[in-house]
Write a structure and sequence with these properties.
heterodimer, A: alpha/beta, Rossmann fold, three-stranded parallel sheet, 4 helices, 3 strands, about 10% strand, globular, B: about 350 residues, alpha+beta, S-adenosylmethionine decarboxylase, 3 domains, nucleus (chain A), P-loop_NTPase (chain A)
Chain lengths: ~130, ~350
């Protein structure tokens, strides 16, 4: 499901399946994008932050067009204890690889991978981040 | 053949891209097909132009013929020039029969009576457009062929499109000659300028697809707002909002291609509004400010702002009124009266 911001429109509540993973997309070229994500985060129930939330930062290929500081984004990721993925949507190879990563994460979050839970997975990712 | 004419022809040919020189000379028709066959159009442009000048010498070209070649070049590369629009007013309502010979005669006579040193050239095109090229001199100097003005007039319309030369002082003369020749009694400059002559014509002749506001209470059901998302597995949560934006956008801009403008300029003469406690600009005079929007295709980019999420729909009427009001230069002053809103001056 794609949405431009949270909260989701209530008129579609009855049509919505269970949400297993929320991916917040931040366009590094737009300050508005970061602001939008920050205001939307407030509407997410705390239980999602146990591994069912992830940040996807796009537009990292265009270094000259960066409007948002990487520091600010990393702080956001740390504050919400959620993994941060960086990608460039304009390059097909990276786009496909990122999509595969997200699908893998989704499978874990939905409980389709025996032995791995969303929480254990996210703590794995966190350990590799901090070094 | 006059040296100045030879040089002018040489420089005009040099402006033309090499692959198009033959075609343009054929359009010109001054050199015979046999003569054109003798020219090697694959050599350096410098040499091509020399050969062409040579042939023109054989045919004793004068400035009148050279001017026609210049019109042909500028007709094909019309988008290199900046065009403005003038609107003429008639005193009565009579639709007079337009006689092209009469028009040319009146125009030349009026212009020459004011200024002897002018070169005036006409060329008619199939779309009813009359192109006029005027090279200006002074009372004592011969016309400068390198800074001419171009005028495009469609008979039976009150609009004239002008690409003026740098010498703005000749505009009143040109305007006078136009109203005399076209049988109008007044002419005024419109606040509409662009490089795309066809787009200017589209705007004033209302040839672009216009929006007609229709009353529609319910959103269009099941319409695929983003055709590339044919994948049924993707669900748009904000579909109704997207459709609202799309509908408002269509109402504002219409569904067809937009005329091509490069600028919109707003000259603000409004009062600066701020928190009274901040005590900024306590002098009660207008805050002069110029806001300019530029784009390779301004109206299309404005049209894509709301769907791209970069602006709220509906857009300000100051932006959406541009083709409808046929203007892209605005002066905005304070509205005098109870409401502190700004309004657009004519």
């Amino acid at each position: 499901h794609l949405a431009t911001s949270l909260p989701l429109p209530s008129e579609r509540d009855h049509l919505r399946p269970r949400i297993d993973l929320v991916v917040f997309m931040i366009d590094i070229k737009s300050k508005y994008s970061l602001k939008n994500v920050e205001t939307s985060l407030v509407h997410v129930d705390a239980s999602f932050f146990l591994g069912k939330v992830c940040f996807l930062v796009t537009g990292v290929g265009r270094v000259n067009a960066c409007s948002v500081e990487t520091n600010a984004i990393c702080k956001l990721g740390k504050a919400y204890c959620s993994p941060m993925l960086f990608c460039e949507l304009e390059l097909e190879g990276i786009r496909v690889a990122t999509a595969q990563r997200l699908v893998r994460m989704l499978q874990i979050c939905a409980g389709h991978i025996p032995g791995v839970s969303a929480l254990s997975f996210v703590s794995l990712m966190r350990n590799s981040d901090d070094d | 053949m006059d040296e100045t004419v030879a040089e002018y022809i040489r420089r005009t040919v040099l402006k033309i891209p090499r692959d198009e020189i033959k075609m343009m000379l054929q359009k010109w028709g001054f050199l015979s097909e046999a003569q054109l066959q003798t020219v090697n159009f694959h050599q350096l442009k410098d040499n091509i132009s020399q050969e062409v000048v040579q042939l023109c010498e054989e045919n004793s070209a004068d400035i009148k013929q050279a001017a026609v070649l210049d019109i042909i070049y500028n007709h094909i590369y019309q988008n290199k020039r900046m065009w403005g629009v003038y609107q003429m007013k008639k005193s009565g309502d009579e639709l007079e029969y337009f006689d092209i010979t009469d028009f040319k005669k009146k125009f030349k006579r009026r212009l020459r009576s004011a200024l002897k040193n002018v070169t005036i050239t006409f060329k008619e095109y199939e779309d009813n457009a009359i192109w006029i090229r005027v090279a200006w001199g002074t009372a004592h100097k011969k016309p400068n062929q390198y800074k001419p003005s171009y005028v495009v007039y469609h008979s039976q319309t009150p609009y004239v499109f002008v690409s003026a030369s740098v010498l703005k002082s000749n505009m009143p003369l040109l305007c006078q000659a136009l109203i005399v020749a076209c049988n109008y009694h007044d002419i005024r400059e419109m606040e509409l300028r662009s490089h795309s002559l066809n787009s200017l014509k589209d705007i004033v002749f209302k040839r672009y697809s216009q929006n007609f506001p229709t009353h529609s209470t319910k959103p269009i059901q099941g319409r695929n707002v983003e055709p590339e998302n044919a994948d049924r597995r993707i669900v748009q949560e904000n579909r109704s909002e997207k459709e609202r934006v799309h509908r408002l956008n269509e109402e504002a801009f219409g569904s067809g291609p937009q005329p091509k403008l490069e600028f919109a300029q707003y000259r603000l003469e409004t009062m600066f509004k701020s928190d009274p406690k901040m005590d900024v600009l306590d002098k009660k005079e207008p805050f002069r400010c110029l806001v300019k929007f530029s784009s390779p295709h301004l109206l299309e980019s404005l049209k894509s702002l709301a769907p791209a999420g970069m602006a709220d729909a509906p857009l300000s009427p100051l932006l959406t009124c541009i083709p409808h009001n046929a203007r892209n230069y605005f002066k905005i002053r304070e509205k005098k009266g109870a409401f502190p809103e700004s309004f657009v001056s004519p």
